[in-house]
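--- STAGE predict ---
source: upstream dedup step, 1 unique chain passed
mode: sequence only
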Amino acid sequence: MPHFIIECSQDILQQKTPDEIMDAVYNVAESTGLFAVNDIKVRLQPYQYYQLGKDKNNFMHVFGYIMEGRSTKQKADLSTQISTQLTALLPDISFLSVNISEFEAATYSNKALINPENTNHNRHFGL
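--- STAGE serialize ---
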């Protein structure tokens, strides 16, 4: 936790490498101090087929999924910082957007939480 999933048009990868794009998002997430560095996960999914509005060439959207507990301001700042960093990296992009959503702790599960040795229900157990 958190997970940042970057969806973009395939042509974006002709402007910047996947690593450059993912590093930009990762570095922003790390710089906020909201997350443990080893917890940040970033993935990129390019699309070959997509449809956009008239005279729009490409797109990028970042879906951020974080554990509940951050303030609205913290989430808004995270979204703005990611948008700012990606705009600087890709100034000619037609559409760029970021959305931060929360996981509900009560309904979240992972490998650590189901480990029988994890008697304290620590979601970071064994990491």
